[in-house]
Structures are given as structure tokens and as C-alpha cells.
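Figure 2 data, in text form.
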Amino acid sequence: MIGITPLEMWIRDKISINHNVMGRSFIEALKAYQLQKINEVINYARQNTSFYHRHLISNRIPLSKLSDITHIPFTYPRDLADNPFGFLAVRQDDVARIVTLRTSGSTG
């Protein structure tokens, strides 16, 4: 089987897409999985953080398609600076260690 990426077999196993599902059907199954996981993360953030509980209250959630992610409002550095504890999704006592890593996904 020739896949779209060398990781395709791993992806199929990881998210339980049958090895007989091919082409567009594979892509649609992958998108459905991604949408489900995005909605789970959004739901977790809304239920467990005071910031996202308020920040996402008026949005069309759960998302019905991946492109709906454009309706999610941005979170700005000022939001974090103004209320850093509003982003905690666990009790502060449950935080054992804070780790800061440099990434290429941020510009400032």
C-alpha cells in the first residue's frame, strides 16, 4: 500500500482507521478524528479554565467542521499577562513543575 506519508500506517493504527479505507475516505476519516479531538480540547478548556469558560462562551461550539476553527477568537499575550491563573486547568497545588520551552510556533 502506498500512502500519502510514511507515517500513514502509524496514523491509521493510532486513530483506528481500517487499513482498507483509502484515498478520499481516509482523508475524511482523518478530518473527522481531528475535529473530534479539537472539540474535546475546546470542551476541556471551557470546563476547566475560567479564562476559556468566558472567552469561548459565545462561540459556535462544538465545531461542526474543521474550517469553523476560524470562528474561535485569538488569545493574546495581554490576556495571559492580565490573568495568568485564569489559564490553569488544574488546581495550582497539582502543578509540580513549570517548564518553559522555546518553539518556532511563537513570534514573541
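Caption note: The two ends are 43 Å apart (CA to CA).
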